[in-house]
């Protein structure tokens, strides 16, 4: 809050004790938006041990002191998606672990899941924070913990975004999936070597080189289709068959509308006929597929590798089928195919400035109507929303054949 100074230790301890006692109140307790001494009441999904979200997530209520350090801000969450990586983090199968702390007064050390989201600044501790009431911010680094109604943290932990012409859903989902596709195509597509922030410049890609991807209807896949189109690449997109031919056709059409050149179902892709169809697409092999993107694994990954041209790159960035990637050794020897992996979190740490440019670039494309966001299934999170509703929404997040990505949309919290 402007002009508020950090209080002495004794006062802070009282505040912490107050916060902890509030956190133990029964969930039916009547909520006052602003408690005694101006405390903000907040809720967060937390876990203290790894496991299935439905088993280990709980909704924790706590109070936030109005007295915050001058470099900090108090924010409220507007929207936060449920991405596969968030669930894997709760399960304990992700590549990095969140630290468990007692900062919000949970009985046991805990962590708040949620990698991305958008917050509105409610108050700033002082002008040194560089942020002001009403600003929109997203986490500056991975694993901030966005599945919560409010947070207080150092302003440096946030990245301010220009909210003009952007919806909370768009802001909440910009920093993981679109950025992954953007970065992969910039680094491994024919665009390699171009710096982030130059997306508006046409790339030097001649008549359009091919890339192929599975999981093409995922958030990353849809973004890759669109960036590919914008940057002069052509895409072959593999999706899983839907329950009915009509539903499959509708999904194919959605991807064509985003700019997909070819959309094939997994059953076609894994069949014997795929070789002939591929030859047709690549004009009897006169055109080659230079990049394969895999977020599935198993047979689908093997088929991606087999579809590639000589010297191509196959990049794995996800493993939705939870099956290992098996690669015929001939592809390594006779086709000299390069197999690489990509992890956005690592790239973000290496190039903080590049990440800012990339996010601005994508938000601009959204404003200009040149980039469409992923279909979502909104999960309303109001003050009275039950713990079970939130927990189940997370648990459902890894189920296949979804109509849209689950996103917590925060109402009157
Ligand atoms: N490496 C990185 O830096 C990075 C960054 C972002 C995302 N990722 C990864 O990218 C992948 C996609 O993430 P997202 O957020 O874009 O996904 P999403 O929007 O939640 O969509 C999930 C995708 O996975 C498919 N899928 C689900 N279960 C499957 C299964 N058992 N077998 C085959 N496909 C299955 C879905 O196809 P259906 O519609 O047919 O179910 C859909 O295409 C995830 O593995 C995620 O962890 C990695």
Description:
By secondary structure, the chain is of the alpha/beta class. It folds into 2 domains: 9-173 and 376-410, Medium-chain alcohol dehydrogenases, catalytic domain (Quinone Oxidoreductase, Chain A, domain 1, Alpha-Beta Complex), CATH 3.90.180.10; 177-346, NAD(P)-binding Rossmann-like Domain (Rossmann fold, 3-Layer(aba) Sandwich), CATH 3.40.50. Helices cover 31% and strands 20% of the residues. The chain has helices at residues 9-23, 53-56, 84-91, 168-172, 177-188, 219-230, 245-258, 266-269, 274-281, 298-306, 329-333, 344-350, 352-367, 387-395; strands spanning 40-46, 58-64, 72-81, 118-124, 136-139, 150-154, 158-161, 210-213, 234-239, 262-265, 289-294, 313-316, 338-341, 376-381, 405-410. The relative contact order is 0.13. Mean pLDDT is 89; it is low at 1-32 and 193-207. The structure holds NADP nicotinamide-adenine-dinucleotide phosphate. NADP nicotinamide-adenine-dinucleotide phosphate binds at residues 83-85, 176-177, 180, 215, 217-220, 240, 295-296, 317-318, 320-321, 342-344, 400-401, 405.
